[in-house]
Amino acid sequence: MRRPIHRRTTRASAAAAAATGSTSTIFAGAMRYELKIVEYSRTKAVPNGCSMKYPAFTAAGHTWHVGYFPNGVIGAEEAEADYVAFFLYLNDNDAAEEAVKAQAIFSLLDIEGNPVSSYTFTTVLVNFSEKKYWVTRTSSRGNLWRIHCISRTIASASG
């Protein structure tokens, strides 16, 4: 698995930035985590179904990471590599004490860092204690972006 090309989170406290080398801010359980993929064309060499796992981050008291599949994922109806996929994973091993619910917004950002509305997708609120795996697509075959999101990496993350 390749290392990510660049990772940056935004709006952080100085303490978080000093501890992790990144910046982030959490507002009422919400956090912005920004990935900048430099030299995107080079990531297309990653085989279909293989991901680039980005470093973990903390939001709402839980540890998460983002998986980036530059050539899509492998599945019965998804053997083609004409789209990118992003997964959000809950990493916590101690999440069994309470329900872990999450909602994510995935956006392609323009050159100024603003979300492009036609490439922005908000997931439903997902309860990780009920769903081991959740996926959705935002566009039809042939378009650049399909957003896949919210997945749980441990079977014991529960309610």
Automatic annotation (TrEMBL):
Pfam families: MATH_2. PROSITE patterns: MATH (PS50144). InterPro entries: MATH/TRAF_dom, TRAF-like. Residues 30-159 form the MATH domain. This is MATH domain-containing protein. It comes from Oryza glaberrima.
